Amino acid sequence: MFNGILIEKDEQGYRASVKQIDDSTLPEGDVIVNVSHSTINYKDALAITGKGPVVRQFPMIPGIDLVGCVEHSDSDKFHVGDKVLLNGFGVGEVHCGGLAEKACLKSEWLIPLPDAFSPQQAMAIGTAGYTAMLCVIALEKNGVTPDKGEILVTGANGGVGSFAIAILAKLGYKVVASTGRVEQTEYLKKLGATEVIDRATLSEPGRPLAKERWAGAIDSAGSHTLANVCAGMQYGGVVAACGLAQGMDFPATVVPFILRGVTLAGIDSVMRPREDRIEAWQRLADLLASEIFEDISTVISLHEAVDVATDLLTGKVRGRVVVDIHG
Fold this sequence. Notes:
The protein is of the alpha/beta class.
């Protein structure tokens, strides 16, 4: 038996609670990890609250991120005592995830924990920071350099947005942050934003083309926000799209793409190849200073996680939430 959050759905309804879980609940895998830390991502919050159809089978342990030590391994890739981390691969959706003391996983999903990070720091980064790094790499590979102009980051107070600002600023880009919480301007400027704008300027239906402003953008909102971001790109600009916080629709036209040569780069973090994951985490290790973790993350216990999931969906959470599984 081990402690964890278990999501159940039956004739009594949909519910998530911290409880003792039998080892038999764990699915098949060739590596067993003693989990030390996990996180609450937007997807985890949807799963825990039942506000979105994230969980595909029940019962389910949520948690799309985890870090811990290998307790048992039938793989030659990892050995007992190795520190490993995981992001995505359907964990917490179709395969029991990281919000528990134990996880049974496939070795091909795991990568070594970079020496630069403690387990807590790695989960402060989590899928959000890893996704932000993938977005920045996409901008770089499509020729967006700091001299090209301003980079827009939407959903700036969220995990992806916060890390995107910090990474871009470290690389010398001029970053404009879009947020629905302009009262957090000081926080965003401390991360490296040079300007903060209200998301309302982007979230309503707009024109097919707007004034050229952005050289690049990282968008976690989707819907009208993404459409307006594309409409306001400079000629040859690049948008890295990684989320759907506003909606999964895309009420836009092809005009920005065929008249301004705009590139829309889709960023998937869930099934990303292992070499891309290692590259992104190495870049994060090279770029992030240790002091950022105190500003960008808070640490909670496993027993607090269910309530925090609701707070995250209602916009009450800033930055990242790390779950200390044994705290």
